[in-house]
Amino acid sequence: MDGVIYSGDSLIQGADKFIARLLEDNIPFAFMTNNSQRTPLEVVRKLKGLGIEVTENHIYTSAMATGKFLGDQGPGGTAYVLGEGGLLTSLHDNGITLVNTDPEFVVLGEGRNFTLEMVQRAVDMILGGAKFITTNRDPSPKKPGWNNLGIAATTAMIEEASGRKAFVTGKPSPVMMRSARKFLGLETAETTVVGDTMETDIQGGVQMGYKTILVLSGIAKKEDLSHYAFKPDMIAASVEDIRFPLKWW
User: Fold this and answer.
1) pTM above 0.85, yes or no
2) pLDDT band at 111 (very low <50, low <70, confident <90, very high)
3) C-beta neighbour count of 188 within 10 angstroms
4) Which residue in 19, 34, 146, 174 has its CB near the most CB atoms, within 10 A?
């Protein structure tokens, strides 16, 4: 979403018209975000504030992918969570009980309200046998004025302290890429991923056999694409430049 539809609190030019075209042509789509903090309703409200009117059926978050994954692992699972609203809601909706002792899983998501003491407790639980799940490995912004620590940093801290590698459910993990497709009711050949990062959006799509469109309105730079062993099927300056019907190289 950020870098494709909006940049911070500003709409990327033409993004509203792109979404309007999808709605007008009844093309199934979802906003697929690694951010696990917001509930789908909160995402809908943010988009509405930018002039894009969609429903919760158009939102698929890493929190939703994580909840579904853990729910599928077995009924009545338990989890100790370092995270906030969207993640807590999704786990509850998928039958996962949130506990403070002896969990089956330690689940890490975005958040600013958990403390170092809570992180240390999570490490003890992992050392005691709990399985470590993280909703994504997105990096920190690495720029002045950042307002959230990227999960990659917190994940690395817990991994080093526990000696256990996290299982990642968000992009580019096949867990999220596959469950998002099923959320839309699409087959592999019908699915296209539009994103602004090679390491998550495009890599995840390529690994799943989806078509991919890289937009240059966010993180990716055209001059850096030769560094990767894979490539998108299409490159566009922004979603405003994507034309229908899609014509692949």
Assistant:
1) yes
2) confident
3) 11
4) 34
CA 27 – CA 39 distance, rounded (Å): 23
Rounded-to-integer distance, Cα 249 and Cα 196, Å: 19
Residue with tokens 């699972």: 77
Largest CA distance in the chain: 54
Give the residue ranges of DSSP H helices in the chain: 15-24, 40-49, 62-73, 85-93, 116-127, 151-162, 174-184, 203-208
Q: Which amino acid is at 15?
A: A
Query: Considering only CA atoms, which of 116, 109, 152 is closest in space to residue 133?
Result: 109
Query: Two tokens at 107?
Result: 């689940």
Q: Tell which residue, 48, 47, 17, 20, has the closest CA to residue 31.
A: 47
Average model confidence (pLDDT) across the chain: 93
* Cα torsion angle, 2, 143, 157, 115, sign: negative
- Examine the pLDDT at 146 and tell me if it is beyond 70: no
> Using N-to-C axis directions, what is the helix angle for 62-73 and 174-184, rounded to 10°?
100
- pLDDT confidence tier of residue 18, bands split at 50, 70 and 90: very high
For residue 93, what is the DSSP state? H
Q: For the chain, count helices (H), then strands (E).
A: 8, 12
Residues 62, 150: Cα–Cα separation, whole Å: 14
C-beta of residue 150 within 8 angstroms of C-beta of residue 119: no
| Under 8 Å between Cβ of 155 and 137 | yes
Nearest residue to 200 (alpha-carbon basis) of 232, 224, 223: 232
- Name residue 119's amino acid: V
